[in-house]
Amino acid sequence: MKDALDKVCSMVNRIYGGAALLLLAVLTGAMAVQVFTRYVLGSSLSGTEELGRYCFIWMTMLGASICVSSDSHAAVTILNDHLKGRMKGGHKISVDILILACAVLLFIQGIKMAAMTTRQLTPTLHIPMSVIYCSLPAGAFGIILNGINNLIKRMDEAKSSALVQEGADDGEGGMR
Fold first, then answer.
1. What does the pLDDT look like over 130-157, one tens digit per residue?
2. How far apart are CA 31 and CA 49, in angstroms?
3. Average pLDDT of span 32-45
4. CB 20 within 8 A of CB 66
5. Domain Tripartite ATP-independent periplasmic transporters DctQ component: where (predicted)?
6. How far are the Cα atoms of 72, 73, 79, 81, 91 from residue 76, in angstroms, in the given order?
7. DSSP class of 134
8. How far, in Å, CA of 143 to CA of 26, rounded?
């Protein structure tokens, strides 16, 4: 089961990474066109700022999922840096649970927002706002998937670490 989840997470992360890279290219191109038309031609092209903004939103949500998988998301580590052993493992597990809880909430509310905005169009590009709001459940799905995978791995680490500690306490040198 763990291997299957690892494979699914890896596949989702590759898809999200490719999509984020494509969105970054579109964002960069749109902003380059915006700067060129505004400062060289003296007249802005309508829609480039909006396109860049929406690409950035999608890229951020997809990237957040990838960051959770590699534990490279933004974090305040002052407490974790001072913990040792089982306390540190327990803290990491509790952080994973909080990330999962927030991602589930984001997923549910993102679906609600996308459903509520199907008829609302963006000001310049005239695409449904639901397309933009769909980035929330899409990113949250990846965060949930990677968060569950991280949680399973951390719980396995905590279990094996407890067994090693228990063996050391028994005077067996950690072997069972």
1. 999 999 999 999 999 999 999 999 998 8
2. 7
3. 92
4. yes
5. 28-155
6. 12, 10, 8, 10, 12
7. T
8. 24
